[in-house]
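Intended use. Records like the one below are meant for learning the mapping from a protein sequence to its folded structure. Do not use them to infer anything beyond what is encoded.
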Amino acid sequence: MTATQNINTTETPTAAHQANPADSILRRLATRAMGLTGADIERIVREARLKARRGKRAISYEDIEEGIRGNRPPVPYDLRWRFAFHEAGHAVVHHALDLGPVRGLNIDTGLGGYNLVGFHLWATDTRDWYENMLTMLMAGRAAELLVLKRVSSGSGGADNSDLARATRIAFDMERTLGFGAEHPLLYRPHRDPGEVFVRDSELAARVHARLEVALDRATAILRKRRPTFHALAKALFDAQAMDETAVLQILTDGDLPP
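Structure written out for the chain above:
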């Protein structure tokens, strides 16, 4: 099953925003709803209203959350652990590299794990930023290898998967962003990197080498922060969905000194 990421480019929220109780509830529901379509949510709200009407009371947030949970089949035990390690890996590396806030994590969809993260706008577009992005995208696979000693297909298999997005970034670094090892000043775009790789094995090797470096780097970060990584995976396994506040508490408790 493909583990996907839902990424928004945003600034870090203020403390006042985080402290608002209504915002906290809405963030929790939004985290629970990762992976659902607009039609799914509309149906869940409609059913929750009907349930509240039958009970002669107002609809509550709990009704909606229960509807979201009831809409999904339970995730098998072993698969739930794999999802938890995979998404915790992404979150720990994203935080360690100071890419931005982790808005929420969810392994309750039955279709893979989801994470919602943001990026600090001032840090984008440099070579270091793209290398950090590659490291974060490879962190789910690194987490599976580190703990489970083998990987699933959860990093790939779809155009929005970790491997697809990382490959596209590494391809662009070589061909369009000016960071390539060969002819870095040439702008050479292409809609389908896979088609180019078939014709240019040397380019394929350079792109793959970038991904290998990112995978090794992600593994080193997770090893260095193993207690935090395991604590977050355990919390995610138990809760199945965690909002920004819950994730941040574990990540900051494990922050290493500069």
